Amino acid sequence: RQAALPHPLASPETRSGVPGLPPSAEAMKINQDTVLRGKKVTLVPYTAAHVPRYHEWMQSEELQRLTASEPLSLEQEYKMQRSWRDDADKCTFIVLDSERWPGQAEENSMIGDVNLFLTNTEDPTVGEIEIMIAEPSCRGRGFGKEATLLMMAYGVRKLGITKFEAKIGQKNEASICMFKKLHFKEVAVNSIFQEVTLRLDVSDQVRQWLLEQTNHVEEKSYAELKQPAGVLDT
């Protein structure tokens, strides 16, 4: 999670049923059959079949440091995947390399994940976004930027998001720089947690820009694309 929100098990309570969430977000299963295909990356729902590779990533001390995460057992990681699927305040996609998938197995095409948290009960239109490009060979090549844009456009179109926030470790300069290039502004610094909060209000102008940046994206059915049938059961 390169944008440095904590690994979800850092706060394992589920928040489903949070009052005030938009109707479309009552169950984040909204994206369980959604594939967003861009030029560099393809976003697919996070399923149980992705967990072993994800678990492998999170053994990395570097990723633990960047994401303020504690290492989990494989069993805990499976439990977390189920919460990502079922909780009303989380929306997550696994990031695949578009050159590899479809074609190669998904676990061999995985390069990271991108997430939205809807945890502001006073304002359900705020989405806290995070991006992690876990594969070192895929960093600095525009994968994270496109994955973030795809998720932002999805949040605006499907979840009613009008404000985005990103909380990033102060030392994670690459991630801070990327979000600033996406027009986020730094609004706070937390010296205790050593993180920076960046924000983007989705004005009409920003919305138009976001849709233009993602007008190449194809939305498809995951059930129809995944291969072979039945392998990636949730």
TrEMBL record:
Q: Where is this region: Disordered?
A: 1-22
Q: What class of enzyme is it?
A: transferase
InterPro entries registered for this protein in UniProt: Acyl_CoA_acyltransferase (IPR016181), GNAT_dom (IPR000182), NAT9-like (IPR039135)
- EC annotation? 2.3.1.308
The record's annotation in SUPFAM superfamilies points to:
Acyl-CoA N-acyltransferases (Nat) (SSF55729)
**Has UniProt tagged this entry with the keyword Kinase?**
no
Q: Does the keyword Transferase apply?
A: yes
Judging by the UniProt lineage, the source's domain of life is Eukaryota
Q: Name the UniProt key words of this record, in alphabetical order.
A: Acyltransferase, Transferase
Q: GO molecular-function annotation terms?
A: tubulin N-terminal-methionine acetyltransferase activity
Q: Where is the N-acetyltransferase domain?
A: 41-185
Recorded catalytic activity of this chain's protein:
N-terminal L-methionyl-[tubulin] + acetyl-CoA = N-terminal N(alpha)-acetyl-L-methionyl-[tubulin] + CoA + H(+)
PANTHER family the record matches: ALPHA_BETA-TUBULIN-N-ACETYLTRANSFERASE 9, N-ACETYLTRANSFERASE 9
Function recorded in the entry = N-acetyltransferase that mediates the acetylation of the N-terminal residues of alpha- and beta-tubulin.
Q: Which family does it belong to?
A: Belongs to the acetyltransferase family. GNAT subfamily.
Q: What's the name of the protein?
A: Alpha/beta-tubulin-N-acetyltransferase 9
